[in-house]
Structures are given as C-alpha cells and as structure tokens.
Specification:
The chain is an alpha/beta fold. The protein has 6 helices and 17 strands. The longest helix has 18 residues.
C-alpha cells in the first residue's frame, strides 16, 4: 500500500463503526467511511466533542451537523515551498481535499523535478477531472507547465484560490472548465502532447453541456485516448480510483494494455491509505495506478 504519511496538519485519529475521527488543522470532524467495518472503544474525547459531524442517511446522501466550525479554514502540506488548501464542508461529506492523494503528489513532484534537472526543459502535465487542484499544485510547485481541466467552474475557481494561497498564482497553469473527453479529443486534433497525464475520474458525472460519464463504460477507451496524447519521451501517467470495481489490478492491466503496449515502460498499482494515529492501522482510501516511461528511473 502507498501511504500518505507526511501530513502535519491532518491526521486520522481513530476509526469505528463506519466512521473516522479526523483532525483537520485543529478542527475535529467525524465523517463516514465504508471501509471501517470494525468497532473501537472510542476513548478519544473528540468522538464526543467534534467540531462537525457528517451523518449519512439510510436513504442515501446525508447532512452535516455543525458545532463549532468556521465556514472556511486553511490547511498546509509540506511539499516544495509548501502547499496550502482552503477547506469547507460541502455535500457528500467532502472538505475540498483528499488527503490520501498526498502520496501521489510527492511521487509526481519527484519525477517532475528529476526530469527538469536532467533535461533542462519544461515538463508539460495534463490534470484531468482535476477537482480543487492538489495534483496541479504539486506539479506546478515542481516546475511543470500544467493544464488543469474540470467540468465544474466552481471547482476550477476553488483550485485557483488554492494556487494563490500556495504562492503559485503566477505559475504556468491553464485553468480550463471543460468536458475532459472533449478536451483530450481537441488536443489530439491540434497535435498537442503532454509528458505526464493525471486523472481522477468520477464514477458518474456530467460535462458542462450534459455529457454523461459512466466509469465502467468510459474509462478504458478514455485511457486509450489519453495514451495518444503522451509525448515522444513521456514521463508518467497516474490514474486514481475511488470506484469499488476498479481495484489496483484493474488499473494495472489498463495501463499495461495502453501505455505499456504503445510506449513501453512500466506499470504498477496499489491501494492508497492513511495512517490511523491511535492504532497501527492503515486505513484504505482508494487505489492508484502508475505508469512511467522507458527512460524514467523507478
């Protein structure tokens, strides 16, 4: 498992009965987690005095119960000169950051820095379904030129805010509100190419003009399409998945059948996870598939 273990402002404190107790830069949140099928004694006082608690509904969805939580607050991550994210609780239990992705931020940051130091030329990164910009900020802080693409204008604006908070407002990032598949198709027609591609596809979604995305039907042809966008000397491709059916082995096979078959290189995949500070557990939090090009040291 690839573990995001270098957070200072964030911790999973405990897990029990379908929920996790988290510390987000001093604020305690209780949020549901379907992986937590065990029980603990819930000895930590945060279980009884959280700043907010997200209650899942038996009918689907849920709602926040707030006790003492600001409308927004900031959290930092020690990568490069330091990344900063603005948090706010919103629908479907999210806060604006997936902290487990920090293990991938560090991996991509290192590869980009090494490539730039070796080649002396810019690295072009495409971040698809880019959300609030964690991977974009990591790549930009490493010195990459980034195309940040998401179908939600609100998410793109939030990512821009995070860039400004991180001192990256002048970094070479193109902020694009667009349907990811249509953007990739246009880039192929334009003859553009990228050294690295990151994607975090949703299980289901709609583009700005109502385009439907169903991951089981759409992901493999989309990865094939993206492989055609890789440059002559590609660096990496990263696929993140929170969909139950897309286990690490599935992600690895997709990359082997696409990027490896067309570009050579090496593919691997693992669960990603977060340490639980009150136990020695690692909480599973999705899966990632990574591919690196032939000329990339592993």
């Amino acid at each position: 498992m690839w573990v995001a273990k270098n957070w200072q402002d964030y911790k999973v404190l405990d897990t029990s009965k379908g929920e996790k107790l988290e510390n987000w830069a001093g604020y305690l949140l209780i949020r549901p987690d379907p992986q937590v099928i065990w029980e603990s004694r819930r000895n930590l006082p945060g279980w009884r005095r959280p700043n907010a608690h997200y209650h899942r509904s038996a009918k689907g969805g849920g709602e926040w119960e707030f006790f003492d939580l600001p409308e927004t607050w900031d959290i930092g991550y020690p990568l490069g000169e330091g990344l900063c994210f603005r948090l706010k609780p919103f629908a479907f239990k999210h806060t604006g950051v997936f902290p487990e992705q920090a293990v991938n931020w560090e991996w991509s940051w290192r590869l980009i820095r090494e490539r730039i130091a070796k080649s002396g030329r810019p690295v072009k990164v495409l971040n698809l379904f880019a959300y609030t910009g964690g991977a974009t900020l990591a790549a930009a802080s490493a010195g990459a030129e980034v195309a940040h693409v998401d179908a939600s204008k609100g998410m793109v604006n939030w990512a821009k805010e995070n860039a400004a908070l991180s001192g990256l407002q002048d970094a070479p990032v193109r902020w694009l509100v667009d349907d990811c598949k249509k953007f990739v198709e246009r880039e192929l027609r334009r003859g553009n190419a990228y050294d690295a591609i990151i994607m975090d596809p949703p299980s289901y979604g709609r583009g700005p003009k109502g385009e439907i995305w169903k991951i089981e039907e759409s992901i493999f042809p989309f990865v094939e399409l993206c492989t055609d966008l890789l440059s002559e000397d590609p660096l990496f491709m990263l696929i993140n998945s929170y969909t139950t059916g897309l286990q690490p082995g599935v992600l690895k096979y997709m990359l082997e059948l696409t990027a490896c078959r067309r570009k050579g290189g090496f593919a691997e995949a693992e669960e990603i996870g977060l340490p639980v500070s009150d136990t020695d557990f690692i909480l599973p939090a999705g899966a990632s598939g990574r591919w690196v090009g032939e000329n990339v040291p592993r």
